[in-house]
Amino acid sequence: MADRTGTFDGVHRRNLSKLLVLAHLEGPLSRARLTAETGLNRSTVASLASELADLGLVEERAPDPTNRVGRPSPVVAAHPSVQAIVVNPEVDAVTIAAVGLNARIVVRERLEVDHLVTPAETADLVAGVLARWRTTELRDARIVGVGLAVPGQVRSDDGLVRWAPHLEWTDAPVRELVESATGLPAGVANDASLGARAEHLFGAGRGVDDLVYLNGGASGIGGGLVVGGRLVSGTRGYAGEFGQNRPGIARQDDRRVPDGVLEDEVSRARLLQVVGLTHADEPTLAAAIAASGGLAVAEELARQQRILATALGNAVNVLNPSLIVLGGFLATLAAHDAAALEAAVAAQCLPVASEGLDIRVAELGENRLLIGAAELAFARLLADPLAD
């Protein structure tokens, strides 16, 4: 039996995918809502939901007793046992977490390092942590894969890390190494691009079709672009390298590196130095900056804001987004004086290009890269819930 869109099996798989994607992206939904969203009839939705439940991918819950309008409709939610292992290797730490199909962090661990980890070390760390978690927090989990958010240029065709300069990785086959060490399928992408995806799907950019995302991490500044509702990756997957652009610096005494790029001037390391820290995770750095009343800290924050504003103004003139999202230490920088940053950006944009522009900090906070990396691991399952 077939129809014009393909075989019955193909249509069935696509319909299963529709329901699972909705449960993944939207959270718990009633069958009535799923019927409205998919355009399928109620009996088909009921059958598909039951099948996904039998596969262990969703769970069906009793109707909300407070909803007394119309016939009560069971609620379908992503099954909490379906999880991905996610990894963010950085110059000062390797962060590993488990993320549920409901986009929630199940368990997270930051492993601080005193040297640059190699791709092989990264794979071994992931395997070791996963083995430990399988006997504790993830004892009952169904792990579907591994997603890695790497601060570097990652070839989209095969996940090869072509160049991660701060980690000193060149043509690193980290995907294959992780797959060999864990026995799980793995995916690799640029960390900032994954942050953009996460914020677009679940965070500050949810429902926004045109946005620019900039991520500030230990390795510098990366970015991601959503244009017309789609993540822009470029020909090979290298789009979004805002940190490598040379910013215009109006005040010469603001410059710290002759002919430096954006991430040389707008720098997490410089913020750590000015508050007297050698290393810290994002919340610790933000707290240290907030607690400091020193003039040197205020001046460094203002200097970095001025330079960042120029870079953002250029992006607005070129791309005309409706939203800019700032993550990592850039969120801390923006929150220091949001009004000043917005005014400085607007002053460097074409007036019509900046009309209606909104600047927000990343809603997912320090979890944004991890949630983005989970999308790599879930991609195959979401595309075809019946895939082996």
Outline the fold blueprint.
Elements: E1 2-3, E2 6-7, H1 8-26, E3 29-30, H2 31-38, H3 42-54, E4 58-61, E5 75-78, E6 82-89, E7 93-100, E8 105-112, H4 119-133, E9 142-150, E10 153-154, E11 161-164, E12 169-172, H5 174-182, E13 186-190, H6 191-202, E14 211-217, E15 220-227, E16 230-232, H7 262-265, H8 268-274, H9 282-291, H10 295-319, E17 323-328, H11 329-336, H12 338-347, E18 358-361, H13 368-383
Parallel strand pairs: 6-9, 9-13, 14-17, 17-18
Antiparallel strand pairs: 1-2, 3-5, 4-5, 6-7, 7-8, 10-11, 11-12, 14-15, 15-16
Helix pairs in contact: 1-3, 2-3, 4-5, 6-13, 10-12
- What is the overall pLDDT average? 95
The CATH class label of the largest domain is: Alpha Beta
Number of beta strands? 18
| Structural classification | alpha+beta
CATH architecture of the largest domain: 2-Layer Sandwich
The major pleated sheet works out as:
5 strands, mixed
The CATH fourth-level homologous superfamily of the largest domain: ATPase, nucleotide binding domain
State the domain count: 3
- pLDDT < 50 stretches: none
Family: Belongs to the ROK (NagC/XylR) family.
InterPro entries: ATPase_NBD, ROK, Tscrpt_reg_IclR_N, WH-like_DNA-bd_sf, WH_DNA-bd_sf
Protein name: ROK family transcriptional regulator
Pfam families: HTH_IclR (PF09339), ROK (PF00480)
Structure description:
The protein has 388 residues and is of the alpha+beta class. It folds into three domains: 2-78, Arc Repressor Mutant, subunit A (Orthogonal Bundle), CATH 1.10.10; 82-194 and 368-383, Nucleotidyltransferase, domain 5, CATH 3.30.420.40; 206-363, ATPase, nucleotide binding domain (Nucleotidyltransferase, domain 5, 2-Layer Sandwich), CATH 3.30.420.40. The protein is 40% helix and 23% strand. It is built from 13 helices and 18 strands. The protein has helices at residues 8-26, 31-38, 42-54, 119-133, 174-182, 191-202, 262-265, 268-274, 282-291, 295-319, 329-336, 338-347, 368-383; strands at residues 2-3, 6-7, 29-30, 58-61, 75-78, 82-89, 93-100, 105-112, 142-150, 153-154, 161-164, 169-172, 186-190, 211-217, 220-227, 230-232, 323-328, 358-361. Strands 8-7-6-9-13 form a five-stranded mixed sheet, with helices on both faces. Strand 7 (93-100) and strand 8 form a beta hairpin. The longest helix is centred in the last third of the chain and has 25 residues, at 295-319. The radius of gyration is 22 Å and the shape is globular. The relative contact order is 0.12. The model has no long low-confidence stretch (mean pLDDT 95).
